[in-house]
Amino acid sequence: MPYCAAFRSSKHNECYVFSEEKFVVCDYAPGEKKTHVNGPIHISDGFPMLAKTVFEKGIDCTFDIKDNQAFIFHGNQCAMIKYAPDPADTRLLLGPIPISGMFPCLKGTVFENGINAAIHHLHGKVIIFNGNKIGYLNYKAKYLSWVKNLLSCFPYWDGTVFTNGIIAAFNSHNKYEAYIFNGKYYARINYCPTNKNGGYLVNHKIRRIRNEWPALHGILLVKEEKKKEIQKKTNRK
C-alpha cells in the first residue's frame, strides 16, 4: 500500500491520515471511529503549497514537530511544512530536497532513499522505520545515533503483522503512546523508554481497521481491495 502516512493534528485527539493523493482528518479518541472530521481531500487542495511537487502524488512518511510544523517524505525527497492552526496559513518552509540533504546523517543508510514511518521517542528524537530496520534520529541536531533490527527494540512485535515493519504511524496526544499500521491492521502501543521490552500493545490487541476504524476503511483499504480483486480477475484469465 504505497504512499500511506499519518501525523497528529494540533487539535487534541485528531490526526491527519494520507493515502496516495488524498488525506482525511480523523478523531482517533478511544471507541469506534465511524466518521471523518474532514475529507477525503486531495493533498494539493488541503495543502496548496504542495501542488506541482512530488508530495501531491502521495506522502509515505511524516512526523509533526513543535509550532504546528512537520517533516514529510516521498521516496528520497523530504520537506518541512507548516500545517496549522489556520488552513490558509499552510506553507512550505523548506524543500523539497533529498533526504540526505535535509538529514546528512542518513546518507549511506537504508533511510537515504525512503522512510516508511516515524514515532516520536524523546524530545527532539524520532524512531524511523524502513522495513525491518529502525534508526534513532535526532532531527534537531541532525544526528543518527544507531540503526538496528526492528525486533531488537520491539520484541513484542515478533509473530505479529508488524514483524517486518509498519507502513504508517503517528503519536497520540497521550505521552508515550502511538498508533501503528500495516495492511488491514492497526494497534495502539505504549513505548515508554524505561520499558525493557520496548513497550507493549495497549489492551494486548491488534485490531482490524475495517471493524474498529471504519472512518479509515474508505481511504486506506478500498483501493488496496480493488487492486487485489483486479489481480484475481487477471489471474483467472
From TrEMBL:
Q: Which SUPFAM superfamilies match?
A: Hemopexin-like domain
Q: Which protein, by its recorded name, is this?
A: Uncharacterized protein
